[in-house]
Amino acid sequence: MRSFNIIVACSENRVIGIAGKLPWSIPEDSEFFRNKTAGHSVIMGRVCFDEWKDACSLGRSVFVLTTSPLPKDSTAVAVSSLNEGLQKASLQSGEIFICGGEAVYQEAIVHPLATRLYLTLVHRQFTGDRLFPDWKLLFAREIDQRSAEHQGLKFTFLTLEKAI
């Protein structure tokens, strides 16, 4: 298996979702996410897959952690565990990205092969039912940072690596 990245947008209080959806709409972050993962492998849970209608576009290899069959017309591959997804994604070219949801992030963030975190930190507290794990001690080395704003909502794109 190869090393992998985690990519996520979360609020200051680590909220990543409510009722299966993002609690905000930031077009620049959506574009960043689409462009960063294009042509690479993505691993995600079933709710994320069902919400991300064009996951299989832009040359992505998609691996979905699920116990249910995927739609017959989908090019995504069902996997039963994160490690199975990582093994299959490791056979593909390009990078590997973990795209959520909460349980997948919880397992991935402590995985020894997780090396980089692409975090869009939304500078506001949100109410939600899904949280991103606390990353600050694990991914403490900042590689890059860029701040932006959309309709008064401030956010920062952070690229972090595991502290060694």
Can you summarize this structure?
This protein is α/β, with parallel strands linked by helices and 164 residues long. The chain has four helices and ten strands.
Series of secondary-structure elements, N-terminal to C-terminal: EEHEHEEHEHEEEE
Q: In the CATH hierarchy, what is the class?
A: Alpha Beta
The number of strands is 10
Unreliable runs, pLDDT <50, ≥5 residues?
A: none
Count, helices: 4
CATH topology call: Dihydrofolate Reductase, subunit A
Q: Which characteristics define this entry?
A:
eight-stranded mixed β-sheet; two-stranded antiparallel sheet; 4 helices; 164 residues; 35% strand; Dihydrofolate Reductase, subunit A; 20% helix; alpha/beta
